[in-house]
Amino acid sequence: MLTAAICGDVFASPPVDSILAGIRAVTGPMGCLLIVKNYTGDRLNFGLAAEQAKSEGYKVETVIVGDDCALPPPRGIAGRRGLAGTVLVHKVAGAAAAAGLSLLDVATEAKHAADMIGTMGVALSVCTLPGQVTSDRLGPGKMELGLGIHGEPGAAVADLQPVDVIVSHVLKQILSPETNYVPITRGNRVVLMVNGLGATPMMELMIATGKAVPKLQLEHGLAVDRMYTGSFMTSLDMAGFSITIMKSDQAVLQRLDAATKAPCWPIGADGNHPPAKIPVPIPPPALATKNGETFGGPLQLNQQGLILEAAIEAAAKAVINLKDALNEWDSKVGDGDCGSTMFRGATAVLEDIKCYPLNDAAETVNEIGSSIRRVMGGTSGIIYTIFCKAAYTKLKSSSLDDITPKKWAEALEASIAAISKYGGATAGYRTLLDALIPASEVLRKRLDAGENPTTAFIQSSEAASAGAEATKNMQALAGRSSYVFGELLAAVPDPGAMGAAAWYKAAAMAVRDKSLHT
């Protein structure tokens, strides 16, 4: 099985530094294979960690698993989600590595296994995020079909049905020749996994397995070589299950049957457990010093430093005040944690601002990125880190005394371009870019027309707010909202866009107020 697993916050991708720590902890001379479920945040964070590890001399390969069979392909840039079938990829890759294969050969086997797998889930209840009220979106007597593992709504809501009807529907969806999710046809041999989502008793999972096997044999003409029943990939306390079908052959069965010390693998052997914590050497922070001097807040702020300090504080406080509203919006279109995630980043910025070199705009933006990267998980954290890094790169090309309003506008444009490049989204995809792109366009237009920079900033913030509100009428094409049907998105703005518009507007108003008093 796996040598290491990297944990993020609830329903959020682990941050880059945690992934790097895992790579450094366990990677030997043969290299490291990262098995990543197909979610935007995971791809971005694991991708950046892989590139960093390669630059440190590690051999790293990545396999993306997208075994979801609930949504009609294609769907925006997000693609098929990684679900419980990923566990079978873990087993195949782990056994191949234990057999002594090279990194490229292990990656090839894992990729082949991922291409042979299809999964679909059914939920009878909504999961409860720690410290939050359980959503009431699923009424009595209803079930969700085609849900993910992060609490997001399913592809469809239907009346509760007998288990054999549900199992028939799920198997037909996975094995549908129209969608061709998996290359499985009559006469093939398969592996079946019935996976509990967290609150489903083993007895009920066994009932589902008992219904699935004869349907696969009699209705679909498939031989079932192996059955795995249990809770392998859960979603907190969600009641329900997912079914995974994998095309099998002798080579795949050899990997699945190979002995493992993983304690919950159904055919696993008992073994010694590794220590709970492994000491990992941590390299010195790259941004801790500049020219041998430790960063810290300047003893006296110049005018630019005072304005920058006011803008940062106002932006962070705006995000903190919007926490509950962002979570509320996100609970309807995503996983309900957008506000909490951005709150962590804003709180860290307020705590760290006393150490920011505020008289140096470029380095301050870089330090904001470091604060965000340290505490913000998931897609939002990595996107804002990329945002700050791109702005820093643009600003540092100018001298300290040459950071003009047009330089700030160019930095915003560079940040938007970087987010679009690495995240894949652009205008109209229902993301934070739908707030930032209109703001950038208005800011550039007003500055080029010779308007007062502060007035231009205020006008661009109004464009950001209007752009965020306009996301109510957009179909999501990126991020977790792209898995949610359009009717559920109607009248709910994109939380990421609303958060971006809030801090942008707060910063603009702070700059205006500070400029009037200096």
Description:
With 518 residues, the chain is an alpha+beta fold. It has 2 domains: 66-127 and 139-257, Hypothetical Protein Tm841, Chain: A,domain 3 (2-Layer Sandwich); 303-516, Serine Threonine Protein Phosphatase 5, Tetratricopeptide repeat. 48% of the residues lie in helices and 11% in strands. The chain is built from 17 helices and 10 strands. A 6-stranded mixed beta sheet has the order 5-4-3-8-6-7. The protein has a two-stranded parallel sheet with strand order 1-2. Strand 1, helix 2 (40-55) and strand 2 form a beta-alpha-beta unit. The radius of gyration is 25 Å and the shape is globular. Mean pLDDT is 88; it is low at 268-274 and 286-294. Keywords: ATP-binding, Kinase, Nucleotide-binding, Transferase. Substrate binds at residues 37, 42. Residues 306-509 form the DhaL domain. GO terms for molecular function: ATP binding; glycerone kinase activity. Belongs to the dihydroxyacetone kinase (DAK) family.
Return the structural class.
alpha+beta
Order of helices and strands: HEHEHHEEEHEHEEHEEHHHHHHHHHH
CATH topology of the largest domain: Serine Threonine Protein Phosphatase 5, Tetratricopeptide repeat
Rg, alpha carbons: 25 Å
Q: What is the number of helical segments per DSSP (H or I, 4+ residues)? A: 17
Point out poorly predicted stretches. 268-274, 286-294
- Roughly how many Å apart are the termini? 62 Å
Question: What fraction of residues sit in β-strands?
Answer: 5-15%
Q: Which CATH class of the largest domain applies here?
A: Mainly Alpha
What's the domain count? 2
InterPro entries: DhaK_ATP, DhaK_dom, DhaL_dom, DhaL_dom_sf, Dihydroxyacetone_Kinase
Pfam families: Dak1, Dak2
Domain DhaL: 306-509
GO cellular component, one term: cytosol
